[in-house]
Structure to design on (583 residues):
């Protein structure tokens, strides 16, 4: 996992070397192990490296036949690609096979890749730049169309730091963020900066996009007919293969372990595949009554013979480091799970450089309660997902956002095709936006802040092929989601107690905010980014009642946005605790 950036200039435009250097510096945290550059024919590539595979000869850019490549991520099936296609590679890097495949297949070179990646490839023979992103959007990639041409980077803040884009807010995406906690589609919250969509490959010539190709993350078609026994056998094979591939590394690796089924399944498979104990990391909180999964994780770790590290997150730790944590989220996702994820990554970096995580399990196997509601018709109390925003009927905002759900509605329309059931469509909606723009952005930024690579074995073509087209009854049964995964755990890792009720993961941020409301509320209320949005006096009132779950969620969104705006729009460095930072 690394950082990449670059420019593809229009004819007659000059190459701003200072901008390339500024982007490289801004992405140094993503690649503390080295940096490289390539400049030729109006195209510039920059790379910062986090060394994971091929520590000796894997520096980038990589070159072959007049083409140059930089990449962020891992191609897990690189060995198979080399053997199957009889590729002659100069290095042992997992990212070299895509370079040779491009020379043979053009934009279709990504179709056989199994991994997480953002790739920039300069073809000097055709004077074209190719940008590509993995189908699930595990690795980020952003572009900005400027007067000089197209700039790209792993993080928006690098484009801003280089002076290529000004940090101006798109009001529609800001409203999405406040109401949903993430933003949807290609447009980011910054004017002039767009995402390369998950699975998208772009061909750029003379500083303009001339061709697009999209690779789907999920299999097409309605549920298939398959018995539970056959489905379990297929799932076992797919999980084993995926976890085996995701463990490929020349540096130590571990696991983020919660008390839930997703990470328990990965732990069980890692224990099967490893001769040495798995290194597992779990977060918990110092608030009585908070949802704390450490006991369940401890039980699972002991049963698997794992080496278990518990990280207690305290209120004092949060207030001290929250500007740093929110500051890492330059593409904002106001998911309070960024807090434990950031602290887990900080602790994990002491022992490992790679962690496997359970993101994607709910989306692939049908785990969320909102899916069960979406399966029901309206007359049986069914409801659309995310039908209510965080600030609906709270009378806090100066004007009520009206188009904040347009992106989700567009995803719903696109997902309800090809004979999919209501459940499949709901899963596809989450895979399109919630997964890449919330969960995976959280994982990427919080881990990269500490130089740790995050891997997600459930977000794999083999696992998706084994699970997404399962019959609904193998995903949801007896009002319980992820039925097949739970049954697999019941057979292969019963100590994880897979059929106990889903607890859900919560962070006691509302209780923390309420305890500091007298100090924190006025600080947040007078921030420029908040004052223009909220009615006078309403922020302080909201913060005083933040112990109530829904009000606490809204207060957290405002606190997050206040810190984020101060850092990424006003440009203040993330120094001091939250009170000093906002003062």
């Amino acid at each position: 996992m690394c950082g990449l950036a670059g420019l593809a200039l229009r004819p007659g435009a000059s190459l701003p070397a200072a901008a390339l250097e500024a982007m490289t510096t801004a992405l140094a945290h993503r690649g503390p192990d080295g940096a490289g550059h390539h400049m030729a024919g109006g195209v510039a590539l920059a790379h910062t490296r986090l060394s994971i595979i091929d520590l000796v000869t894997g520096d980038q850019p990589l070159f072959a036949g007049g083409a140059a490549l930089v990449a962020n991520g891992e191609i897990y099936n690189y060995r198979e690609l080399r053997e199957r296609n009889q590729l002659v590679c100069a290095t042992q890097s997992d990212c070299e096979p895509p370079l040779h495949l491009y020379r043979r297949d053009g934009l279709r070179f990504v179709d056989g890749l199994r991994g997480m990646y953002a790739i920039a490839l300069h073809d000097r023979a055709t004077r074209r730049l190719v940008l590509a992103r993995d189908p699930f959007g595990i690795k980020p990639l952003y572009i900005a169309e400027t007067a000089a041409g197209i700039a790209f980077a792993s993080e928006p803040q690098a484009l801003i730091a280089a002076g290529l884009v000004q940090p101006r807010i798109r009001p529609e995406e800001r409203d999405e963020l406040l109401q949903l906690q993430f933003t949807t589609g290609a447009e980011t919250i910054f004017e002039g900066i767009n995402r390369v969509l998950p699975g998208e490959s772009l061909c750029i010539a003379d500083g303009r996009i001339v061709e697009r190709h999209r690779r789907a993350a999920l299999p097409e078609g309605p549920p298939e007919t398959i018995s539970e026994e056959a489905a379990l056998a297929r799932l076992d094979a797919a999980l084993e293969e995926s976890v085996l591939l995701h463990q490929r590394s020349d540096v130590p690796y571990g696991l983020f372990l919660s008390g839930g089924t997703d990470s328990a399944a990965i732990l069980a498979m890692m224990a099967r595949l490893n001769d040495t104990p798995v290194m597992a990391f779990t977060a918990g909180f110092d608030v009585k009554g908070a949802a704390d999964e450490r006991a369940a994780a401890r039980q699972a770790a002991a049963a698997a013979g794992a080496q278990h590290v518990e990280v207690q997150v305290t209120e004092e730790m949060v207030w001290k480091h929250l500007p740093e944590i929110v500051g890492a989220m330059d593409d904002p996702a106001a998911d309070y799970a960024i807090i434990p994820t950031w602290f887990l990554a900080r602790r994990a970096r002491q022992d490992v450089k790679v962690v496997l995580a359970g993101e994607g399990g709910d989306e692939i196997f049908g785990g969320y309660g909102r899916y069960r509601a979406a399966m029901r018709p309206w007359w049986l109390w069914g409801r659309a997902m995310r039908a209510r925003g965080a600030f609906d009927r709270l009378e806090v905002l100066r004007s009520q956002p009206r188009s904040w759900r347009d992106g989700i509605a567009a995803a719903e329309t696109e997902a309800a095709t090809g004979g999919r059931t209501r459940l499949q469509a709901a899963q596809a909606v989450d895979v399109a936006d919630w997964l890449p723009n919330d969960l995976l952005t959280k994982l990427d930024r919080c881990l990269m802040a500490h130089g740790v690579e995050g891997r997600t074995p459930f977000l794999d073509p083999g696992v998706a092929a084994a699970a997404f087209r399962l019959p609904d009854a193998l995903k949801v049964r007896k009002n319980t989601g992820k039925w097949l995964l739970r049954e697999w755990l019941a057979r292969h890792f019963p100590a994880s107690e897979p059929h106990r009720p889903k607890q859900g993961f919560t962070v006691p941020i509302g209780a923390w905010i309420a305890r500091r409301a007298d100090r924190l509320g006025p600080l947040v209320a007078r921030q420029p980014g908040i004052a223009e949005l909220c009615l006078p006096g309403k922020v302080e009132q909201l913060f005083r009642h933040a112990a109530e779950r829904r009000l606490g969620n809204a207060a957290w969104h405002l606190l997050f946005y206040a810190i984020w705006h101060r850092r990424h729009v006003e440009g203040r460095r993330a120094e001091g605790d939250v009170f000093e930072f906002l003062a």
